[in-house]
Specification:
This protein is an alpha/beta fold and 144 residues long. The chain has one domain: SPOUT methyltransferase, trefoil knot domain (Alpha/beta knot). Helix content is 31%, strand content 22%. The protein contains four helices and five strands; from the N terminus they run βαβαβαβαβ. The longest helix is centred in the first third of the chain and has 14 residues.
């Protein structure tokens, strides 16, 4: 299963570019991926570009209105998708700062929210619900 990450606009700040490069290096060990950058703009234009770039893919919108699964729930979802073998490419749609249009959200098979709660940062007793591939998992165990 291929992962396509479709984002609106290139990161402008140097620390954001470095973070993106680092994250993509860690992601490669989990399978093949493709980073697609569409032209930034307003919500309507960006949503249209994201839909065009993700045509034929299983679409996952990253949006504040989405579900907030645990890491285990998200891992199980992807494992089920791999085992079924019906989905060839999963596209993560990351839009403009003002979010996605209702039309885009309605055309996605899944909408996820990766909300950041500063109160849970680096707290073993109150970990974040979802963590993505990173170097130091709080429990010291790599994710499947």
């Amino acid at each position: 299963m291929q992962i396509r990450i479709i984002v609106a606009g290139k990161p402008a700040l140097n620390y954001a570019k470095l973070a993106l490069d680092d994250y993509l290096k860690r992601l490669i060990r989990h399978g093949s991926y493709e980073l697609v950058i569409v032209k930034a703009g307003d919500k309507e234009a960006v949503s249209e570009r994201l839909l065009q770039a993700s045509s034929g893919c299983y679409r996952i919108a990253l949006d504040e209105r989405g579900k907030t699964p645990t890491t285990r729930e998200l891992a199980n979802t992807f494992e089920s998708m791999k085992m079924a073998g019906e989905i060839k490419t999963v596209a993560f749609l990351i839009g403009a700062a003002d979010g996605h249009t209702p039309e885009l959200r309605s055309q996605c098979q899944l909408t996820l929210s990766l909300k950041y709660d500063p109160a849970t940062r680096n707290r073993i007793d109150r970990p974040a619900r979802t963590t993505l591939p990173h170097r130091n998992h709080p429990c010291g165990q790599p994710l499947p």
